[in-house]
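note to self: dont lose this again. the chain is below, predicted strucutre after it. 215 aa total, dont forget to put it in the shared folder this time
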Amino acid sequence: MLNHECIKNALHWRYAAKQFDSEQKIAEEKIYQLMKMANLTATSMGLQPFRVLWIKNPRNLKDLGNATFYQKQISTCSDLIVLAARTDLDEDFVKEMIQLMEEERGLQKGDLQDYEQTCIKFLKGLKNSNELQHWVDKQIYIVLGTLLTACALMQIDSCPMEGFKKHDLDEILNLEKKNLRSVLLLPVGIRTEKDFLLHEKKVRIPLDKMLIELN
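---
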């Protein structure tokens, strides 16, 4: 049974891999299970304003290197996960999600009408596209946190990445036509002895200095 010690040990085991063993491939079933965990991630109002792209062989994308500054995580990973924001967050998007909620919970159509209007009002209340993008990006970082923990528990090595040319990657993956824009990358794979960080000690601020207890 999973307990706090298992989680702690898994998080201690993980590190941001800078290079993977390019000769080893993660089983598709494990990645699929990882995708299920991403799907269960908490998001604001349960709206899930994102999509997860699973690139099964990133080395097949010739232009990916330039868009990611030729970082070894990309050239050696088994699979590449792209966390992308939806760019079509309008009333139809909300109504689609509310309809799904009603159907999945066995409710009548219109039972969540008040909640639907609350969500629509919230999105409209974001003053401009930058604020809306910022809100969506925060949801995607929650997804990233879930994936990093899930990877650790499944002993899948990973490395969260913000440093890439988002516009170039979007063009390569044709994301604009999918009403998406890339936000984060998560290459996953199997660690290698060639990685200079592999045996480095994990360094964290001592808990008694990080934690502030308030009564």
